[in-house]
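Forwarding the complex inputs:
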Amino acid sequence: MSSAKLDMEKLVALCRRRGFIFQSSEIYGGINGFWDYGPMGVELKKNIKDVWWNDMVRNPPPGPDGQEITMVGVDCSLIMNPRVWEASGHVGGFSDPMIDCKTEGCKGRFRADQLKSTPCPLKPSKCAGEFEKCQLTEPRVFNLMFKTYVGALEDASAVAYLRPETAQGIFANFKNVSDSSRVKLPFGIAQIGKAFRNEINPRNYTFRSREFEQMEIEFFCHPDESMKWYQYWRDVRKNWYSTLGLNSDRVLPREQGKEELAHYSIGTTDIEYMFPFSDEPQELEGVAHRGAYDLTQHMTHSGKDLAYFDELAWQKADKSVYGGDKKKEQAAKQSPPYKFVPHVIEPSAGADRFTLAVLCEAYHEDKVADASGKQEERVVMRFHPRLAPVKAAIFPLVNKDGMPEIAERLYRELKRDFNVQYDDGGAIGRRYRRQDEIGTPYCITIDGDTVCGGSVTIRDRDTLEQRRVQLSDVVGEIRKMVK
RNA sequence: GCGGGUGUAGCUUAAUGGUAAAGCCCCUGCCUUCCAAGCAGGAUACGUGGGUUCGAUUCCCAUCACCCGCUCCA
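Prediction (whole assembly, two chains):
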């Protein structure tokens, strides 16, 4: 985004024009709170998810003491046994009873539990509902979980929910993963996937959607070390955004106040971003210290033992204190510090929200001199090369003199490793501008010198500068530049 | 959920109770040796559903979507 505040309508128009984001079911008039990614959008979002997976799961940064950290992934079903959501608290608590006032001129909406402390909009000296004219509705519950039915019978026993977060799939599989993959505490389990929340009022383009994708980590650690890991993940996650092109002045970590915290959370930091549609920073990710809450809940509700046994600590322990009493030894093995419920640090990021932030940040308008030297407006998406949907475009300068043949050969070579485009349509300047609008970082042009001397030009999206590179070096150059 | 606004082609904008116009974009061909050039063709629109009417894109009603402001966001 340029220094002037980006007009969201311009971004929305570009996203539609160039195939980043469409309204869902548009030919039927759309549906509120749902969005589709087009050919460019899917590449962008896929790159974002791949980069996250690579940087957090396959090759995470060293831990707080410089150690290697262990991360594994899962991919869980969207629909789970509904008891999961009772254990997590979503069935009981994922809703707020609301009361509307039907009084002419008021039409207020209040949370039922805060009615007695909310001033009446018409008569602020009284509280909502105390004024003679107030016509309050019965409290209505807005449960934010999408309901569905499993199997053919639509009765109460078949009710299930589309998951409102991917996290519970990880908690429910904690024992499976620790039993099957030789991981030792501390370790993290990661998941990328869709989640669904029946938001009362979707707003701000894709920012608050009813169907969205999360990139979540549940990092399990010893309770004594949890604060260290909480700080580690808070810093790692904040910095990650800046390495991918978000201006660090606009990425703002915010420690939640005590009154804001969910009752089970020991601490939560929201990583917020200054989106152009709001004067307030908006949440991209929440890094929450959830203590032992989730595993304990699932232990209680499932009846399964999800505590962790620290084999290493037990092996090192001085067993002589039990004096050979097997019963005492057994009891010790079943209790801290050898057996305990791990604490959890949860960095939970919104893939669509980050995609939107990347789009906002990338949008620039600048001036470029045309063939006659006149300054022309240009729209350019300045994506980080790792995220750019198209890494390079290949142009024959003119469609003759052997140039198309060389260009096509180069295109076929490059597309084995990168998403690239071939374009021989219209004037060369027009082709550059088309690539600028989808944020292609490099344009490779085959010209007369390629035919004679074997070199091509590589044009940089941001500086507009061209440099000549030997045809045989192009693949290596592009590989180096999009890392 | 409430109030206000908007809805004609991919975009920007016309006109009209009786065949919907243009520029840009896009496609095809010609031309073209580096930043939206030129020439010739071509495709594409009245958000949806009712009503009034001989006839509705136009008037009326409803609905949907988007934008702004409230409300909400475990």
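The first helix of chain A runs from residue 8 to 17.
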